[in-house]
Amino acid sequence: IIYRVNQRREEVIAEFRERMEERRAAVTTRLNTIQQLIDSKADLQGRMKENRLHSMRENMLEDIDTKLTQLQVVEKETEVVFECDTRQLEQTISVLGQLIEREIISTPDYPALLQPSVSVGKKGTAEGELYWPQGVAVDEKSQLIYVANTGNISVFSMTGEYIDRFCEGQVNQPCGIAISEDNDVFVSDIWSHCVYKFKLPKFKLVTKVGKKETGVSKFNYPRHLTVTTDRSVLVADRDNNRIAVMDTDLKHKRYIKHPTMTRPTDVKVNNNKVYVLSYQDSPCLHVFSLTGEKIRSLITRDGERNAQVRMCYSFCLDKKQNILMADYDARNIKVFSQEGALLHTLGDTQDGDKTIRPQGITLTDTNKIICTSLFTNFGLHIF
Questions:
Q1: What's the Rg (C-alpha) of the chain?
Q2: What 3-state DSSP class applies to 276?
């Protein structure tokens, strides 16, 4: 589609340029004629003055003036046509640009994504195997997928090929994982109640903060986390019922708390808003300002009549701010609008052992949906 839009855009521009050249030539011819008439008028005025042919001079000058007026009218009409065509071209280019932009940043064809295109891993502790995988993150620079796995961080290619694993002996049960633009990796550890900062590519430990308490820079079963472009790290501090906000050196900045937000499990920042998933609340997704003022809540969960989701621990947002909820109990991924309307459901609940039970979820810059799965099919899935 992008190729066809770009091709059509080039054709429109080429056709416009051809018309412009034709009209420019016509205007140039008219301008030359005008100049010739002006020169003739001046010459005639001189000659008639010398020969005292007043009557002839007046008649011919009047005729020339008439022709000049007609040519000026034509010239003005041509300018109007030029202006109209220019506006039309600008509008066409604008529309084409919008089409191109919409195709580039649009969401995937969600209804077609009923099953993952790639599924890798199996339950186990050997290399390439996954045991209780949680969060997942993508390094867009290296095109590698990092999975928070029990006892390690496992690395896969975008085609699902196992690459390596790191942090063995350093992490216990990592859950959240996020990668900054500075190649820093932030990992939350549920059982160790702490947050790590590592450095790519070899996961060199930079710093570690936290232990199981309620005080500043302390955590109580921290779940998923995110890192923002303004160098902030936000952690869903589940059993402390708060979002911890730190800088990228893991120094405390503030907390986001609210009476309606209990046991948060995931947090994202998008379009100057903080989205918090509280898996026991209904509605379960809370939206806050960057300074912590609550804006709204949306998406009802299991326990309410006609609930929209059953049990979700993780979510992400696409480039159109649609919300992708990893519905663990329903064994699918649901896509919601910003108003909380259900748009699509991904996954087939009738496929037996192949059914995914999504745990962590992320979306790449090219709109690939990547999630981890527990119980039925321990693994990594790429839609």
A1: 33
A2: strand
- At residue 133, the pLDDT reads 93
Q: What is the mean pLDDT of the chain?
A: 82
Question: What is the residue whose two structure tokens read 């994202």?
Answer: 268
β-sheet bridge partners, residue 332: 327
CA torsion, ordered 56, 58, 59, 65, to nearest 10 deg: 140
List, for residues 302-326, the tens digit of each pLDDT value.
766 677 898 899 999 998 899 999 9
Query: Smallest Cα–Cα separation from 266: which of 305, 306, 302, 311?
Result: 311
Residues contacting 280, CB < 8 A, separation 6+: 262, 263
pTM of the model: 0.70
Residues 68-73 have a mean pLDDT of 67
Pairing between strand 204-209 and 285-289? unpaired
Q: Which helix (H) or strand (E) holds 176?
A: strand 174-179
Q: Which DSSP letter does residue 70 get?
A: H
Answer with the residue of higher pLDDT: 267 or 72. 267
Is the bond preceding 264 in cis, omega lying within 30 degrees of 0? no
